């Protein structure tokens, strides 16, 4: 994104969907190259490539909420379809749906948190709109 002069920095355009998609890939929402996370769900202080401050994120409980909604819809839908078409025992159901729920949850938590960080950056939430000296 190009900023034409110093006074325009505060109105820098930050497209939401590209920022979310970069976050879903675990990449910095600004440059798309640096990593957001330095541990599984720990957000880095800054992007190692462009220097964007990332410590402003306040994802908190939102990523788990989104993951619960996604996994709940996938697993419950699949369970109901299988239940209607097969005669699996309760043990078989437990052996399929519990591990699937755990695996999907663990697989989605980091990408969803990255997407939430990207969304917060694009909307200049919390401190993401205040660090003009890092932009440009
Ligand atoms: Zn970056």
Mean pLDDT: 90
Strand residue percentage: under 5%
Gyration radius (Cα, Å) is: 19 Å
- The class by helix and strand makeup works out as mainly alpha
What separation lies between the terminal Cα atoms? 9 Å
Small molecules (ligands, ions, cofactors) in the structure:
zinc ion
State the share of residues found in helices, binned by percent.
Answer: 40-55%
How many helices does DSSP assign? 3
Shape: elongated
| Unreliable residue stretches | none
Q: Can I get a quick summary?
A:
The chain is mostly helical. The chain has helices spanning about 15-25, 60-85, 90-120.
What report would you give on this structure?
- The protein is mainly alpha-helical and 136 residues long.
- The chain has one domain (14-134).
- It has three helices and no strands.
- The longest helix is centred in the last third of the chain and has 33 residues, at 90-122.
- The chain is elongated, with a radius of gyration of 19 Å.
- Bound molecules: zinc ion (ZN).
């Amino acid at each position: 994104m190009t900023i034409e002069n110093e006074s325009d920095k505060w109105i820098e355009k930050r497209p939401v969907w590209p920022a979310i998609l970069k976050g879903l890939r675990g990449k910095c929402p600004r440059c798309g190259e640096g990593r957001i996370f330095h541990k599984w769900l720990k957000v880095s202080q800054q992007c190692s490539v462009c220097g964007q401050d990332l410590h402003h994120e306040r994802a908190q409980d939102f990523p788990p909420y989104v993951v619960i909604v996604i996994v709940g819809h996938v697993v419950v839908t699949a369970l109901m379809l299988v239940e209607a078409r097969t005669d699996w025992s309760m043990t078989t159901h437990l052996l399929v749906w519990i591990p699937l729920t755990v695996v999907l949850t663990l697989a989605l938590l980091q990408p969803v948190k990255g997407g939430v960080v990207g969304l917060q950056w694009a909307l200049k939430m919390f401190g993401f709109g205040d660090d003009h000296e890092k932009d440009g």
